[in-house]
Specification:
This protein has one domain: Alpha-Beta Barrel (TIM Barrel), CATH 3.20.20.370. Helices cover 38% and strands 16% of the residues.
Length: 261
């Protein structure tokens, strides 16, 4: 039987602007990566998203990003180690406050967008993020791209490293995600996504855009909540995992990050 954490980026609305179908998607995932106000989100959205997640038994994690609302945190920025540490600590603390006020605790941290992708290749930046997480709460899970500097930084800091793979993003030969500026970065065909998911979860490998097979460890599987059709994707992926495991419905830990095939 295949078991894997399914996570989704959420809480990315702010003010009068709405993004994603968080309420419906929360019925199908086990972890919610909640925006903390820098790249998206605002206090009301943070509070509401935490409330909806906890009501469903979904683990809540902080999703800190670069201070870039206009660019949705997806534009590369020059940021020092100290700036990264302070930005992550600020955002994690803010979301943890909303979780605590509702009688629960934060479970993990996963960097967002450009911060995540920059840190995946940058040991110093990854270490700054891991330091902020460890200084805030060393029991938190630290989610990072499979095989990346993020996970190595978590291990050096003694944090619980959670190896993440992506259902709706294509991969490069080095195991990094295809930049969104390039064609084919987002997987828009749900059956192509399902095939990629089953390869990663059941066989520990992903096919890069070049055709090369790249080894990956899949502890947690991400589906982007802001992409069109996210709800259809997560439903179909759950169905495919259920079929692969012989279960009536793909079993999801709430919360846990260990892959057990």
């Amino acid at each position: 039987m295949a078991r894997i954490d399914l996570n989704c980026d959420m809480g990315e609305s702010f003010g009068a602007w709405r993004m994603g179908n968080d309420q419906a998607i929360l019925d199908h995932v086990s972890s919610a990566n909640v925006a903390c106000g820098f790249h998206a989100g605002d206090p009301r959205t943070m509070r509401d998203t935490v409330r909806m997640a906890l009501a469903r038994g979904v683990a809540v994690g902080a999703h800190p990003g670069l201070p870039d609302l206009q660019g949705f945190g997806r534009r590369t920025m020059a940021i020092s180690r100290d700036e990264a540490y302070e930005a992550v600590l600020y955002q994690v603390g803010a979301l943890a406050g909303f979780v605590r006020a509702q009688g629960s605790r934060l479970r993990f941290v996963k960097a967002h967008g450009a911060l995540y992708n920059m840190a995946a290749k940058d040991a110093a930046l990854s270490d700054a993020i891991a330091a902020a997480v460890g200084d805030f709460d060393p029991t938190l899970g630290f989610v990072g791209l499979a095989g990346s500097e993020l996970l190595r930084a978590a291990q050096r800091r003694g944090l619980r490293a959670v190896s993440e793979v992506f259902a709706d993003r294509s991969y490069q030969d080095d195991g990094t995600l295809t930049p969104r500026s390039q064609p084919g970065a987002m997987i828009e065909d749900v059956e192509v996504s399902v095939a990629q998911v089953l390869g990663m979860v059941l066989e520990g490998r992903v096919r890069a855009v070049s055709g090369r097979e790249v080894p990956v460890q899949a502890d947690s599987l991400c589906i982007h909540g802001d992409q069109p059709g996210a709800l259809a994707f997560v439903r179909r992926i759950r169905e495919a995992l259920a079929q692969a495991s012989g279960a009536a419905r793909a079993p999801l830990p709430r919360p846990a990050y260990r892959l057990d095939v």
